[in-house]
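Take a record.
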Amino acid sequence: MYLFDPDNWRWLWNGNNLRFLVEGFLVNLEIAVLCMALSLVFGLLLALGRISRNGLIRRPVGAWIDVWRNLPLIFVILYLALALPPSWRQAYERWVPDIVPEAFRSGRVLGAVLGLTLYNSAVIAEIMRAGIHSLERGQGDAALALGMTRWQSMRRVILPQGLRRMVPATVSQLITLNKDTTLVSIIAIQEVMRHARIVTGF
């Protein structure tokens, strides 16, 4: 079988092919870690806005979530990469410090990070909203009966329990985010899929 025949894997050990692929994979991981952190923060803020009692907050946030989580991710990344003004990319490249990983020094990464964050924060917001709503209403009522404000009860009672319930779905989405970083190759970011195409092109 192909997978178990050592001769079919000899190309991997030729020259620097393995190192080249690992370097590309590290780019994917760096982008994924940044987007995970941003998506979790913005996802929580969107979830709190989605369950707000204020309709002026709840309705626009709900529309925002529904739009971004229903768009094809590859379209979002490509559109943002092309739509961002060149001056933004140039300014980013001028001001980015040398201590950041090389993957983030190109202005093209702005579109990739923005697209992945917008899409995944919307999906994670729905996961968090479902986790919060899965709690019994009595939890919030008991907190209010103890004299807590609504936001105190959210922070001290509801969120700690709801976040534990949403861990499996959130972890699953973050794994999907990591896999989706391969889509950034369409905007010429040198990640693992682009490195693999270069290797197989020889």
User: Anything to note?
Assistant: The chain has a mean pLDDT of 82. Residues 140 and 154 are 8 Å apart (CA to CA).
